[in-house]
């Protein structure tokens, strides 16, 4: 399946621009899916993604393990083996008892993070944060030894509940989809303000991803995401990174990759800020 550019890029990417969050999927039956799928996995091979990335001027790439494959990372790791290690990084989802040998092999491929993944539409659940805490702290300790970070995909209410934990983590940690605080509630919502305070007064280990805008903002133009994005940039532009979230899964028929990329021109009109988001910040977090 081809993915033609659905619009012209609104600006030229800076040198060594990075897509810090995208997925690849094998053909149906090629790799085993996890149970209780949240979406119907598409066939989204590496070559289709790289064609899109070339059109956007992207030169560095961070694969992220999709929930459809659970903790079987083979599809992503196979794709990473086809890449130049100097421009390729990955974030995996692993069982807590993964061996040191397994981690060392993944590190050699370019893996630099562990994903902590809870459905972004998971309803509020008392006690879920406490249930997650042992896993989070266990991986925080192991990542500290490896020089890896933690990557969180959480619903907004859970991001808010986790903020006291984020303050205590030893390692850097990134929050997908602007922490999944719904843009319809605006930047003044209490949880988002607590996130801004974490960025403003924390120790610099928290990073926010401009990814999956269609999951937290209102279609078709996602205009309500703009004040959220600009509040994050005004607070700590040195801790914001961007990712396409390709291939957009259940939103693929409603949104285009290039249109999402072009939102950056509106959110960060100056080239210097876009340089931070696309090149400088991911270079620090992922060790490019």
Structure notes:
The protein has 288 residues and is of the alpha/beta class. The protein has a single domain, classed as Metal-dependent hydrolases (TIM Barrel). Helix content is 39%, strand content 13%. It contains ten helices and eight strands. It has an eight-stranded parallel beta sheet with strand order 1-2-3-4-5-6-7-8. Helix 3 links the parallel strand 3 and strand 4. Helix 5 packs parallel to helix 6. The longest helix is centred in the middle third of the chain and has 19 residues. It is globular, with a radius of gyration of 18 Å. The protein starts with 17 loop residues before the first strand and ends with a helix. The N terminus is likely disordered.
Descriptive tags:
39% helix; globular; TIM Barrel; eight-stranded parallel beta sheet; alpha/beta; disordered N terminus; 288 residues
Topology:
Blueprint lengths: L17 E5 L23 H11 L3 E5 L9 H7 L7 E5 L7 H10 L1 E7 L10 H19 L2 E5 L2 H11 L6 E3 L14 H12 L4 E5 L2 H4 L8 H12 L3 E3 L14 H11 L3 H16 L2
Parallel strand pairs: 1-2, 2-3, 3-4, 4-5, 5-6, 6-7, 7-8
Helix pairs in contact: 5-6, 6-8
What's this entry about, in short?
The chain is 39% helix and 13% strand. With 288 residues, the protein is α/β, with parallel strands linked by helices.
């Amino acid at each position: 399946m081809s993915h033609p550019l659905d619009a012209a890029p609104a600006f030229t990417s800076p040198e060594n621009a990075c897509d810090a969050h995208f997925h690849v999927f094998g053909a149906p039956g090629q790799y085993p899916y996890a149970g209780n799928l949240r979406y119907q996995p598409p066939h989204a091979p590496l070559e289709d993604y790289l064609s899109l990335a070339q059109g956007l001027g992207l030169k560095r790439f961070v694969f992220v393990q999709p929930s459809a494959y659970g903790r079987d990372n083979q599809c992503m790791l196979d794709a990473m083996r086809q890449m130049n290690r100097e421009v390729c990084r990955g974030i995996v989802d692993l069982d807590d008892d993964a061996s040191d040998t397994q981690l060392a092999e993944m590190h050699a491929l370019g893996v630099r993070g562990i994903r902590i993944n809870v459905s972004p539409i998971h309803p509020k659940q008392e006690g879920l944060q406490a249930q997650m805490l042992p896993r989070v702290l266990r991986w925080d300790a192991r990542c500290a030894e490896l020089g890896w970070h933690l990557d969180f995909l959480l619903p907004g209410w859970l991001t808010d509940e986790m903020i006291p934990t984020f303050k205590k983590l030893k390692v850097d940690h990134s929050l997908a989809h602007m922490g999944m605080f719904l843009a319809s509630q605006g930047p003044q919502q209490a949880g988002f303000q607590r996130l801004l305070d974490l960025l403003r007064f924390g120790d610099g280990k928290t990073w926010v991803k401009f990814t999956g805008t269609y999951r937290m903002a209102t279609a078709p133009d996602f205009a309500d995401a703009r004040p959220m994005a600009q509040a994050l940039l005004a607070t700590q532009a040195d801790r914001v990174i961007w990712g396409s979230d390709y291939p957009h899964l259940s939103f693929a028929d409603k949104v285009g990759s290039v249109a999402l990329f072009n939102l950056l021109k509106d959110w960060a009109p100056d080239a210097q800020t876009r340089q931070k988001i696309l090149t400088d910040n991911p270079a620090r977090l992922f060790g490019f």
